[in-house]
Amino acid sequence: MKTYEVFPAPVGSYTVGRTQMDLEYTASDHSIRELTVFVYYPSDSSEDKATSAYMFPEVYEMLKDQPLVTGYLTGGYFSIEFKTRCYDDLALSAKDKRYPVLFYVCGGGGSPEWGTVLCTDLASLGYVVVSIGHPNSTMYKRKDGRLYNVSMGFSDAIIALSEDPEMQALAGKMEMRPDDDTAVQMCRNVLALPVIAKVTEYSEVQAEDIRFVADHLYKLDAGELDSIFNGRLLFDTGMGIVGHSYGGLTTAMVCRDDDRFTCGIGLDSGAFGLLDSDLKKPFLLLYREPNYNMNAVIGANNSRETYYFSVDRVAHLDYCDIVFTSANEVLRGERDAMEMRNVVTDYTRTFFDHYIRQKSASVDSLAYDGVDLVKKTRNK
Question: In whole angstroms, what is the distance from residue 198 CA to residue 345 CA?
């Protein structure tokens, strides 16, 4: 396995700035949600600054208290000693008046920085990209120095799902490339399990976090708060959202419930909480087999386009920065890290360019070895 010490150069022409904001609000369940928000954005110059730090050093100790990853730590998990390709608090590029907005949602148990490569790539292409540290389900360090780890409640919910006898029995019956009827029925059986309910609750409140941060961005654009984004965000064609793993559930919920979002992407994710949901938005799923069994109902219900792309020779964590930062070969698939990065970035940028920027390019035209369009649906 090739090792890396620096993330790849961004695919776009813009220099990438990154800024961090601490926000909080009262959620619908009356809890106080203390978030941190990273915003990646296009800039014209690095201003001779050093690159942004990748992550915070305390994360290594935090991992030891996180039951979700304990089994991986003996072989090493991941390194944070990476040189990024973004810079803190640059000026926003003057090349365009306004820039479209995307959200990135990391996987459960992860950190908002785990999408740094994808967020940097998209910002270098002229998007403003937002990644949030969510209480309970992610680990992060706010600007004020306070640390937030994954809660025991969230860990218990995920572990209970993985150990549930009914879930294990269904997982053992999942076929590679099942026919549509078989996949939809399997997905419905999974989503009907009682153990799914608690996992879904955490995803729903994450979706609420995203809607709150979207509200905040609208205020920044309107000049209600002092910001480099005053009058600079493009909302006319809507926002896009992409999520990895557990973050993909949240992505789909946001598309379903918030009309400010035009389209979404799930990276090796599922459909918990979406049993009878019509997303009413174009949605793309990029996944490894047999994941079609876990999200077949999305396309079965969606009245807009749903794309299912299967990617071979990959592992679940290859869809985030761990494809580069992994210190444990068990976590990695067989594809070269740079090749996998190119797959994820290319499908993501092309999808958003088509539905947000309304360009003619479509994901149907992309061609990568071992990446197959399994199905494209549209229900009327």
Answer: 32
**Residue type, position 255, single letter:** C
Contact 281/261 with Cβ under 8 angstroms?
yes
63-117 confidence digits (pLDDT tens): 888 887 766 665 578 889 999 999 999 999 999 999 999 999 999 999 999 999 9
Phi, psi at residue 158, to the nearest 5°? Answer: -70, -40
Model confidence pLDDT, tens digit, residues 338-374: 999 999 999 999 999 999 999 998 999 999 999 999 9
Q: What Cα–Cα distance (Å) separates residue 323 from each residue in 39, 141, 344?
A: 22, 22, 11
* Bridge partners (DSSP) listed for residue 284: 265, 307
The region, left, alpha or beta by phi > 0 then psi within -120 to 50, assigned to residue 76 is: left
How many of the other CB atoms lie within 10 Å of CB of 224?
11
Would strands 87-88 and 140-141 be described as parallel, antiparallel, or unpaired?
Answer: unpaired
Scan for tokens 């109902």, then name that residue. Answer: 297
Q: What is the pTM of this model?
A: 0.97
Per-residue pLDDT tens digits for 262-274: 999 999 999 999 9
